[in-house]
Amino acid sequence: MSHATLTVDEARARLLAAATPLAETETLAADLALGRVLARPLVAAVTVPPLDNSAMDGYALRLADAADGAWLPIGQRIPAGHPGGALKAGDAARIFTGAPVPEGADTVVMQEDCETDGDRVRVVRPAKAGANIRRAGEDIRAGQAVLAAGQRLTPARLGVAASVGATELAVYRRLRVAVFFTGDEIVMPGQALAPGRIYNSNRASLRGLLGQLGCEIVDLGQVPDRLDATLAVLEQAAAAADVVITSGGVSVGEEDHVKAALERLGRIDMWQVAMKPGKPLVYGRVGAADFLGLPGNPVSAYVVFCLFARPFLLARMGAEVGPVKAYTVPAGFDWPKPGKRREYLRARYEDGRALLYPSQSSGVLTSLAWADGLVDIAAGATVKAGDPVAFLPMTELLA
Ligand code: AMP
Ligand code: MG
């Protein structure tokens, strides 16, 4: 077992290198595919929009015919969904947003720039040739790959898939993740809190984090701090899932049995990651499953999940994993004392600057509930209010 101290970037790179995308894919109704990862590129069967169409309610005409405020007869009416005939020489067509532009028309003039008199119309404000026409294919051309394999199906991407008429999508199957929670002190909400006990908060947070990733969760509950019990649940977890994630029990105390169980049943790599909160990060294999051991401390577990487990799971799910998105924003705080490790501070972006939660203790879980991002501060750095800092929005870390 190695205890190498790695940088955040090294640990992330090692985990990503170890993550093999799922082999199994399935075909799914597009309506059920939100959050899934596309396994094959989606090639457009149709051109979007299929025809030149009007971007406005107005009049389709040949702009040259409308010069000098000439009155034009309104030869036809073209609502959306009802293609008209070709535009007769010298005519205008009444047209509505989304309706096909008739052959021969080169411009749509919006109705606000026209004046009508019975069945004739004239243009009363300068119009630009070609204006207000959405061109056929300006969004998508038939045969074009509109979505790439490895993309997660967001609402916008499902919209694009629908716009080319897709009803089914080739996606990776759901990743199965087994979880269990160590610690003789933890009890489930709903149970009596005996002296020395605390409620299991990691279960609620971790289930939420995994749920947002679209993982199938196999919840094996709480495990007492005993080697035999840990061995039994670890074996069960590995048989049931693609990835096993645990909280707690990975420190070096004699009440920490996860490492020993993992060494007995599989293999283990343990790293110290030079960061705060966090530090111990366990990666290993048990049978065919990957193993990730999160710290027990709820703030550390959460942050370690976001920075390491999440990209690992995404890669396992077949998704492309980009670098962590950070925005440079002015600090709304002073950070006068340089830290020994890289720190991820619970922060909120407000009034154009990053504010810190008053307590950055890793025992204070309310800091995470308050935060909408993390400020990433390098080891040894100090910050004065107004200095640029890296802000990692939670929306990026949780999506
Ligand atoms: P450990 O890593 O097992 O030494 O746990 C570190 C700290 O996290 C201890 O204070 C534990 O009581 C706490 N802890 C461990 N698991 C949980 C959990 N599921 N919910 C809340 N706190 C926990
Ligand atoms: Mg423990």
TrEMBL record:
GO biological process: Mo-molybdopterin cofactor biosynthetic process
Protein name, per record: Molybdopterin molybdenumtransferase
SMART domains assigned to the protein according to its UniProt record, in alphabetical order: MoCF_biosynth
GO cellular component, one term: cytosol
Documented EC number(s): 2.10.1.1
Domain of life of the native organism: Bacteria
Keyword Metal-binding (UniProt): yes
Function text: Catalyzes the insertion of molybdate into adenylated molybdopterin with the concomitant release of AMP.
Cofactor(s), names only, from the UniProt record: Mg(2+)
InterPro entries tied to this protein: MoaB/Mog-like_dom_sf (IPR036425), MoaB/Mog_dom (IPR001453), MoeA-like (IPR038987), MoeA_C_domain_IV (IPR005111), MoeA_C_domain_IV_sf (IPR036688), MoeA_linker/N (IPR005110), MoeA_linker/N_sf (IPR036135)
Pfam families in UniProt: MoCF_biosynth (PF00994), MoeA_C (PF03454), MoeA_N (PF03453)
Organism field: Parasulfuritortus cantonensis
Keyword Magnesium applies: yes
Residues covered by the MoaB/Mog domain: 178-315
Lineage of source species: Bacteria, Pseudomonadati, Pseudomonadota, Betaproteobacteria, Nitrosomonadales
Catalytic reaction list: adenylyl-molybdopterin + molybdate = Mo-molybdopterin + AMP + H(+)
Record family assignment: Belongs to the MoeA family.
Pathway note: Cofactor biosynthesis; molybdopterin biosynthesis
Enzyme category, top tier: transferase
MF GO annotations: metal ion binding; molybdopterin molybdotransferase activity
CDD domains membership: MoeA
Keyword annotations: Magnesium, Metal-binding, Molybdenum, Molybdenum cofactor biosynthesis, Transferase
